Amino acid sequence: MTTADADEGWFYDKDAGHLVRPYAITNGRTGPVRDGFALITLVVTADPRADTSRLTPEPAAILDMCRERPLAVAEIAASMDLPVSVVKVLLDDLAEARLILTRAPVQLAEAPDISLIQAVIEGVRRL
């Protein structure tokens, strides 16, 4: 098979190039085991000197990107041009292997009761 024949096959798109399905990258898994990866969860490589030569390309790329500074899950997905769901599965694997550290977003405090706010406003008006 020549290169020209391969270019006309079902696995090649002129605009996108060679296509690899997301399930091939995640070994068929569709979601992470842990549900701790929000879009703004920060990820950093646990050991900046970690050897990535035995990893597949995508996890190795994540570790390389997160060596210098923490990146959000959304930033990693955008940089790698992968769906967020795929990146979450890869991050789950890296977290399980203790190759990354994550910091979940801080939960926002619940909003105060409207009646409390109205009572404060009325108290201020009386002053």
What does this structure look like?
The chain has helices spanning 3-7, 22-25, 57-65, 73-80, 84-96, 114-126; strands spanning 12-13, 17-18, 42-45, 71-72, 100-103. It is an alpha+beta fold and 127 residues long. The protein has a domain at 42-125. Helix 4 packs across helix 5 (84-96). It comes from Kitasatospora aureofaciens (Streptomyces aureofaciens). InterPro entries: DUF742. This is DUF742 domain-containing protein. Pfam families: DUF742 (PF05331).
Biggest β-sheet description: 3 strands, antiparallel
Average pLDDT rating: 80
Cross-sheet strand order for the largest sheet: 4-3-5
The stretches of 5 or more residues where confidence is low (pLDDT under 50) are 1-12
Structural class: alpha+beta
Q: Sum up the overall morphology in one term.
A: elongated
Rounded Rg:
22 Å
